Write the structure tokens for this entry.
Amino acid sequence: MADPSTDDWIQATSATSDLADTDVAAAEVTQATQASEGASGEEVVEAVPGAARVMLEWVVIIVGAVGVAMILRVFLFQPFWIPSQSMESTLAVQDRVLVNKLSYRLNDVNRGDVVVFRRPDEEEAEIRDLIKRVIGLPGETVEARNNSIYINGGKLIEPYLAADETIGDFSPVVVPPGEVFVMGDNRDESYDSRFFGTVDVDRIIGRAFVLFWPFDRFGTL
């Protein structure tokens, strides 16, 4: 016959064990809850810059962009617009070209280059810069006869001219050292070295290398 006290002890032990398990589970739940509450209770700092900082950043960006543009314009590239018909049909009135201002600091002027240069100082005009094509180089003799240009006695082939382009004769001109003989592609409508003489290379601003406006005529020169 079983001892009742033993059964009571077994039941009490079982009840105590169940209670302990319940306490452990409750403790785990409490810890998880506290951890959750601790995580959710942390202070959240939003990374949103102040208005003053945003404004300062935009000022720096704008000033930097303007500075870069000015450096490019002064030392590297500069846009020019075409005010006359003197370079037709290569360039038309109101065309825009980009001029490489560094070109002749690294290389010599070449025949056929389209260059922008400062008008002679003694000439008064609203437009101070002219654009023409280099025809004669230092030391060469340039002349026109029979509707063609001759360099040192040899006929110059000019594929950039319109098929019906004409030019009047002019006597031989010897190009001085350090200077070039320039002409417009529209020979009958161009004010060039036939009238104001050769151009000192130091007066050349740069070489026009691309026609960028209008877009439908975009291309290199």
Summary: The CA atoms of residues 29 and 172 lie 107 Å apart. Helices lie at 4-41, 51-76, 103-106, 193-196. The chain has four helices and twelve strands.
